[in-house]
UniProtKB/TrEMBL annotation:
Transmembrane segments: none annotated. This is ABC transporter substrate-binding protein. It holds the Pfam family SBP_bac_5. It comes from Streptomyces coerulescens. Keywords: Signal. The keyword Phosphoprotein does not apply.
Length: 573
C-alpha cells in the first residue's frame, strides 16, 4: 500500500486500501465477539447499517479505486475474481474465490493464469456476468481519465505498458487477456507471478458491462455485481446510499453475508464526532460503525474505564510497519556502523508511548509485520531491549570515527498521525541523545514531506517512514522497498535505502515464481532477516487498530487482511 498518503487510496487501506488503506501478532480479536452487543446474539437480516467516516468514498468506480481484497464499502457493490477470506484474525489473510470457481490455475512457470466464472452470477439488472465484462473492466482501468487504481497490471500483463484503454480510437483491447468463452478468462504475464490470485482481489477485476459504461460518470451509478447497488452518491462519495441487489445470490457468494437491507455511508465527519456518536449510540447511531476512524489515546483511556464501551471496541492488526529510513549515499549514514549505532540507541518503549501506548502500537524489530501470511521470521540483529542500549551505540560510533558523537537531522511529517509525526520524532531524538547523537528535527507539512522523501534527488539521509502491504504477503512489502530495479530516479521512489543488490533481486524473482504461498511466505521471511543485517531501516512499531461500534451491531469480524471491521459481515439489531 505504499506510504500512508498513498495508502488512503488503497485500503487500508486498504484496502489499500489505506489504502487503508487504508486495514502485529496474527491473532483473532478477543473483544469484538457478536455477543458483546447484548441480547440475542444471532445475526438477522433487515434494518439499516450506518457508516460514519472521516474520508469520503471518492472515485466510486472500480477502475479508479485502490482497494486490496476488494475494499470494505466497495466490496458490497463490486465482486472480483478472488477476494479476501471473511474470517477473524489469521484465517482472514487468505485469498479465496469470488466470481471465479477457484483462485486461479497457473501454467508451469506461473506466467499464464486461467479462471472459470461461476454459474448464475448476475448484475443488478438480471443480466449474466461474462468473462468479456471482466476483460473490459480491466481495460478501462488503463484509461488516463480513470487513473488511480493498482499499477500492477500495466507491469505484469504482456504488451500492457503503453496501453491507453478502450476509449481510444481504433482500440483493439489487451491481447494479453483472452476470453475463449463466456465463462473463461486467461491472463498472459511478462514474468512469473505466483501471487496473481492476490492481485485478482483488486477492484480492477470487477466486471463492467460495456453497454452500461458511462466513462467518468460511471461512479455515480456503477452496475452492481455484489449484494448491494448504489441508489445515491452525493458530493463524490460524501453520502453513499446502498440498497439490496435483488439479483445477487448468496449461493454464488460464500463471503458476503449481506444482513442489512440498507447501508447509509456518511462521511466528512470529524474523528472526535464519530467516536462520540458511536459512544452515545443514540437513534440510528446505535446501528453504526466506522471503517476509517480509530480511537485516539485519550479516547481509548476513557473507553477502557467503561465496561459497556470496552465491550464495543474491535481490535485489529494490519500489515503495516513504521520505521526509520536511511539514505546510505548521504554521510554519515554511508557508514553501516552509524546506522547500527542508531538501531541500538532506539528506545522502543518511548516510541510506543509516543504512538499512543501499547494498546495502539506494538514494538517491531523486523521489517515484515508479525503475521504468518507475510512470512514473519523473528530476528533482532541489534538487540537493545525495550529501552535501547546507548553504551553499545557509543562503542559503534567510536569505531565509526565519531568518538565525540555527531549531529544529524531527522526529517518527519507535521501531520498528527502518531506515526511519522513530531511525537515519534521527539522520542527518537531523546533516545539518541543518550548515545551522544544530537538530533535536529526537520518537520514538514504532509505534502512537502511526501514529495521530499519519495524523490531520489531530495531524499534526506535520516527520516521517518512507514509502509503497508497491498495484500498480506511479503512480496508487496519487501519488493518496493528493497528491489533495486524498482528504484525510480525521475518519479515517486520507495526504495528508501537505494538498495540494488543482485542477490536480493534474484531471490525476489525466485520467490515470485512460487505458487505455493506458504512456501513463498517462508522465503520472504528469510529474505527480510537477510536484508535486515544491512541496517538500511530501523523498524519501530506496528500499529494496532481500536475502533468503536454501535450498541446494536452484531457479528463483528476483523481479519488480519484489513485489520478493521468487515461491514459485509455486520448485522444490526
Amino acid at each position: 500500500m505504499r506510504q500512508p498518503s498513498v495508502t488512503a487510496r488503497r485500503v487500508a487501506a486498504a484496502s489499500v486500501s489505506l489504502v487503508v488503506a487504508a486495514g502485529a501478532v496474527a491473532c483473532g480479536p478477543q473483544d469484538n465477539d457478536a455477543k458483546s452487543s447484548g441480547g440475542d446474539s444471532t445475526p438477522h437480516k433487515g434494518g439499516t447499517l450506518t457508516v460514519l467516516n472521516s474520508n469520503p468514498q471518492q472515485d466510486f468506480d472500480p477502475a479508479r479505486l485502490y482497494t486490496s481484497g476488494g475494499g470494505n464499502v466497495p466490496s458490497l457493490v463490486f465482486r472480483t475474481l478472488t477476494t479476501r477470506n471473511r474470517e477473524n484474525g489469521e484465517a482472514g489473510a487468505k485469498v479465496v474465490p469470488d466470481l471465479a470457481t477457484d483462485t486461479g490455475r497457473p501454467n508451469k512457470d506461473a506466467t499464464v493464469w486461467t479462471y472459470t466464472l461461476k454459474d448464475g452470477i448476475k448484475y443488478e439488472d438480471g443480466t449474466p456476468i461474462t468473462s468479456a465484462d471482466i476483460k473490459y473492466g480491466i481495460e478501462r482501468s488503463f484509461a488516463p481519465e480513470l487513473s488511480g487504481g493498482a499499477p500492477y497490471l500495466r507491469d505484469w500483463l504482456v504488451g500492457a505498458a503503453d496501453y491507453q484503454g478502450p476509449y481510444k480510437k481504433g482500440d483493439k483491447g489487451l491481447s494479453a487477456i483472452e476470453t475463449p468463452d463466456a465463462r473463461t478468462i486467461v491472463f498472459h504475464l511478462n514474468k512469473p507471478e505466483g501471487e496473481f490470485p492476490y492481485l485478482a482481489t483488486q477492484t480492477q477485476f470487477t466486471p463492467v458491462p460495456k453497454a452500461k459504461d458511462t466513462g467518468t460518470k460511471y461512479e455515480q451509478h456503477p452496475v452492481s455485481s455484489g449484494p448491494y447497488k448504489v441508489v445515491s452518491n452525493e458530493n463524490d462519495g460524501e453520502r453513499l446510499v446502498l440498497e439490496r441487489n435483488t439479483h445477487w445470490s448468496a449461493s454464488t457468494d460464500a463471503e458476503r453475508k449481506a444482513y442489512p437491507d440498507k447501508i447509509d455511508v456518511r462521511s466528512g465527519l470529524d474523528s472526535s464526532v464519530i467516536n462520540q456518536r458511536l459512544s452515545s449510540s443514540q437513534g440510528a447511531d446505535a446501528s453504526a460503525v466506522t471503517t476509517d476512524t480509530n480511537l485516539g489515546p485519550a479516547e481509548l483511556a476513557k473507553v477502557t474505564g467503561d465496561k459497556e464501551l470496552a465491550a464495543r471496541v474491535g481490535t485489529g492488526h494490519f500489515g503495516y510497519t513504521n520505521y526509520i529510513a536511511f539514505n546510505p549515499e548521504i554521510k554519515p549514514f554511508d557508514n553501516a556502523k552509524v546506522r547500527q549505532a542508531i538501531a541500538y540507541a532506539i528506545d522502543r518503549s518511548s516510541v510506543v508511548n509516543a504512538a499512543g501506548g501499547s494498546a495502539l502500537a506494538e514494538p517491531a524489530t523486523t521489517f515484515l509485520p508479525d503475521q504468518k501470511s507475510f512470512g514473519y521470521t523473528p530476528y533482532d540483529h541489534f538487540p537493545a531491549g525495550a529501552a535501547g542500549d546507548p553504551a553499545k551505540a557509543k562503542k559503534l560510533l567510536n569505531e565509526a570515527g565519531y568518538a565525540d558523537g555527531l549531529t544529524v537531522t531527522l526529517t518527519h511529517s507535521n501531520a498528527k498521525d502518531f506515526e511519522t509525526s513530531p511525537e515519534i520524532a521527539t522520542a527518537v531524538q531523546d533516545a539518541l541523545k543518550k548515545a551522544g547523537i544530537t538530533v535536529k528535527l526537520q518537520g514538514l507539512e504532509e505534502n512537502d514531506y511526501s514529495d521530499k522523501i519519495h524523490s531520489v534527488k531530495t531524499e534526506p539521509g535520516f527520516f521517518l517512514a512507514h509502509w503497508g502491504a497491498d495484500w498480506p504477503s511479503g512480496g508487496p512489502f519487501l519488493a518496493p522497498i528493497f528491489d533495486g530495479r524498482q528504484i525510480v530516479k525521475d518519479g515517486a521512489n520507495f526504495n528508501t535505502g537505494l538498495l540494488d543488490d543482485t542477490a536480493v533481486n534474484a531471490e525476489i524473482d525466485a520467490i515470485n515464481k512460487l505458487t505455493d504461498l506458504d512456501a513463498a511466505a517462508k522465503r520472504w521471511g528469510a529474505l527480510d532477516a537477510k536484508i535486515g543485517e544491512q541496517a538500511l531501516t530501523v523498524p519501530l512499531f506496528h500499529p494496532v487498530y481500536k475502533r468503536l461500534y454501535g450498541k446494536d451491531i452484531k457479528n463483528v469480524v476483523i481479519s488480519d487482511w484489513t485489520g478493521v471491521l468487515d461491514i459485509s459481515q455486520v448485522a444490526v439489531k
